[in-house]
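Task 17 of the worksheet. Students: predict the tertiary structure of the chain below and write it out as structure tokens. Keep your answer in the requested format; marks are given for formatting as well as content.
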Amino acid sequence: MNLLGPVYQYLKYNPFSLVTDFPARLLTGATSQRDLFANCLAVCCWLLFSVLLGKALFKKGIKTFEGAGA
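Model answer:
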């Protein structure tokens, strides 16, 4: 992600980068305290977003479920 330059710095907070690039930088020691905090905060935000989205979609799916014998 560092090779992309400053134009694409917003991509470092997407879930795919947080799963691949962030742990690699963490293991190599190429992160500062500020980056560690920012990335952990981004992980928590994505987790909260996905849990809330999952609950909303499940609730909507249960209401519209039409199975055999239901």
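Marker's comment: Residues 33-63 form the longest helix (31 residues). The helical segments are 15-28, 33-63.
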